[in-house]
Recover the amino acids of this structure.
């Protein structure tokens, strides 16, 4: 039986200076996907670049529209001496609406993945759209709403499940394959918007 | 692919590594075992790949060659993660798998540039069955006999 080599290697230099310093924050629209209802295509030979997200019949994604810094997304490394390093993806957000249907909708927010758009956009579109929880899904890890606090809005956090529900990559870069004359940004945005409607 | 694997295995491992055949070995291993992913280039890895080819390469190559005669073609190239099925690689998906995914609605027709053989046939059969079932039943109306004029009895 051949040994399965898990050792990873550095492949390029790391530059963290004034030239590469990014700006934080995400744009005011993100996309929520019920994990089991969407197929994801990874770029050939890679496991962290998503080229396409498609809907199963009669299913669609749901946009999350927000203002300013209502949403925060990122990850936490899970390091152990006897396990490979994994990543706990985390997304925190606020629910402003409070009708019965809106509450039920967020109550049922489980096993989803999310794609957000970075405010900082590189010219080649690499890293603009990023996905969290794509393989194992995000589940609510905390939630609170008090009528006298923060305008009475509901604050909740979605995260990868502990004990094996974490992700193999810190984040997934979503980059659709552009058609001729189209930019990666435009192609990816169009692909994400297209998931908002059910396939014919 | 089978021919390539046999050609590699005809040489011993060290000769393969030290010759241009090593590129073939890596290409072959990438296609058969890594779904087109990048293999490690070091000699140690190449030895490992050779050993793997020796063990299961012929079998895999035969399967790979079988896949080449498939009729379906996925729209998106690469590894497709079907959340309720697993990974499917666009270069190695078989008609059988494609039919299973289509019939179980895990992929839709729009996910393919070319549908697998037998899918439309099945669909047509189903359509015919449904049509047969829904065919309107012809009701044979009985011809009404013209009413005979009956005289009203005189009181």
């Amino acid at each position: 039986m051949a040994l399965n080599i898990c050792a990873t290697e550095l492949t390029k230099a790391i530059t963290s200076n004034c030239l590469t310093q990014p700006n934080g924050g995400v744009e005011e629209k993100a996309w929520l996907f019920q994990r089991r209802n969407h197929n994801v295509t990874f770029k050939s030979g890679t496991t962290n670049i998503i080229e396409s997200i498609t809907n199963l019949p009669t299913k669609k994604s749901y946009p999350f529209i927000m203002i300013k810094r209502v949403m925060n997304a990122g990850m936490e490394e899970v390091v152990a001496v006897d396990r490979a390093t994994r990543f706990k993806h985390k997304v925190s957000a606020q629910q402003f609406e409070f009708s019965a249907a809106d509450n039920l909708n967020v109550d049922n927010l489980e096993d989803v993945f999310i794609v957000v758009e970075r405010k900082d956009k590189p010219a080649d579109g690499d890293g603009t759209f990023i996905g969290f929880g794509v393989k194992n899904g995000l589940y609510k890890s905390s939630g609170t709403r008090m009528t006298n606090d923060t305008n009475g809005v509901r604050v909740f956090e979605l995260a990868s499940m502990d004990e094996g529900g974490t992700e193999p990559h810190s984040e997934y870069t979503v980059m659709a394959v552009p058609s001729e004359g189209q930019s990666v940004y435009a192609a990816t945005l169009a692909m994400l918007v297209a998931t908002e409607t059910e396939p014919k | 692919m089978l021919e390539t694997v046999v050609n590699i295995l005809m040489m011993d491992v060290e000769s393969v590594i030290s010759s241009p055949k090593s590129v073939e070995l890596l290409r072959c291993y990438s296609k058969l075992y890594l779904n087109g992913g990048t293999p490690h280039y070091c000699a140690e890895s190449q030895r490992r790949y050779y050993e793997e080819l020796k063990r299961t390469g012929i079998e895999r190559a035969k399967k790979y060659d079988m896949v080449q005669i498939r009729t379906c073609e996925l729209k998106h190239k690469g590894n497709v993660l079907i959340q309720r099925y697993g990974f499917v690689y666009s270069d190695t998906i078989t008609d059988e798998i494609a039919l299973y995914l289509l019939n179980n609605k895990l992929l839709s027709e729009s996910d393919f540039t070319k549908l697998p053989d037998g899918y439309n046939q099945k669909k047509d059969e189903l359509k015919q069955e449904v049509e047969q079932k829904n065919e309107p039943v012809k009701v044979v109306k009985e011809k009404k006999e013209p009413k005979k004029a009956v005289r009203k009895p005189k009181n």
The longest helix of chain B spans residues 43-67.
